[in-house]
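Question (not urgent): is this output format expected?
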Amino acid sequence: MKRAILSAAFIITAIAIPFHAQSIVGTWQGTLPMYGAAQGASVYDNPRVEFNIEQNSDGSFHGGITFIDRGVTVAFSSIAFSAPEVTLAESSAAFTYRGKLSADGKSITGIWTQSNQSFPLTLTLAAAGPLSPRADPALTAPMAADADPTYEVATIKPATAEEQHPIFNLRAHRLNATGTSAKELIKVAWNVRGRQVLGGPPWLEEKKFDIVAEPDTPGLPSEQQSRLMVRKLLADRFHLVAHTDQQFYPVLALTLNPKAQRPVPSDPNFSPSGGMSMRREGDDIVLQFSGTTIPQMLAFIMNTFQERQLVDETGLSGTYNITLRIVGLAQSQTAVSPDDVGNALVQAAQQAGFKFIPEKEPLLVVIVDHIDLPTPN
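Got this back:
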């Protein structure tokens, strides 16, 4: 699942960011000097990136970042611009780019921050089309739909204290999971929430690992192919034995309010999906989802709303542009907790034309029968 995830802390931080509708629309290109040419770094170590930013009708922005040499595009979770300051974030990979627009509007000089590491990045407004890939096309074309790939080579090592957060990109050729636990891997492999993983030793969630894995099949895997490869990795290196069942949980079922307008379908011509931008309007925080499926929006809300599982019963398929207004959050004089943000997001969704109905429904659970610490590399 493409993940459009934003932490409560990021929302809270954004409260203090003034948002002014200025034009940063366009294609911006640059190279991330992560390891330096002197160390013999490859294009994967010093990736070329392309930022595409478009403006919504309400003045907010949406867009995505393409890693040119990997052929991977992900949507920004948030875009903020208060001339000349630019802040772009993608929360599933936990990176933030903060820069300053030049006086002529043709370059942005700033810092890319990810996994508590920072790298300088200068972006230049592209005069022509996007950069052409220089990586092996076999790594940037879609993986064969009937392929049954496996992570052929995988390096697993303990994460440092500064890397205690999971990072996944299920559409990249190579798996990079930074600061992640075995429980997070199980959640990804079966596409479930934490409450749906049962059993296992205490270290299942406590111990964190950095994982780099290469598939044995060329091409970019589908989301489902990546999940299956993670499941195989768990069986091979963690000796995971698990079975699935169903268990009834209290849920909030999302339905459409028959008295409200239906969500607006998004523009299919814009390739990055699952994007979100935010802005402050007086004492309110406004979140603008672009190219987002209903399950993606619910997954975003569930990152802070932990009380119940949220399930989609709208019957809507495809992607939509959805605006959620969190009323009064910016005027809070006290610390805003994740629970406060989660409850506010649920209320905002109901004000945006949806209804949540309390129910009990059977959900898939993954029961851990046996698991070991990962075998050596």
